[in-house]
Amino acid sequence: SMGRDHLIKGFSTVLAGGGIRGGVTYGATDDFGYNAVENVVHVRDLHATMLHSLGIDHNRFSVEYQGLDTKL
Question: Which of 39, 40, 58, 64 could form a disulfide with 48 if both were Cys (CB 3.0 to 4.6 A apart)?
């Protein structure tokens, strides 16, 4: 759909508080900003980091389905 397929391989976010160090740039994108090219992080890992910073264990959001752990 419109808007859901852009910037899926290279994105920016700002985190503040929760023990996040200020002034840090992590990773890099290509010259166009389309693809992550350095220190690539999956959005699931970003979410896990944010939950950890809030004192929430991201594994609490895992459920077993057909013998596999599925993340919510």
Answer: 58
Q: What is the pTM of this model?
A: 0.68
Rounded CA separation 34/57 (Å) = 31
Can you tell me which residue has the tokens 């985190």?
15
pLDDT tens, residue by residue, 59-69: 888 888 888 88
Q: How far apart are CA 42 and CA 46, in angstroms?
A: 7
Q: Which among 2, 26, 4 is positioned nearest to 13, based on CA atoms?
A: 26
Grouping H, G, I as helix, E, B as strand and the rest as coil, residue 50 is helix
Burial class, 12, CB count within 10 angstroms (exposed 0-12 / middle 13-18 / buried 19+): exposed
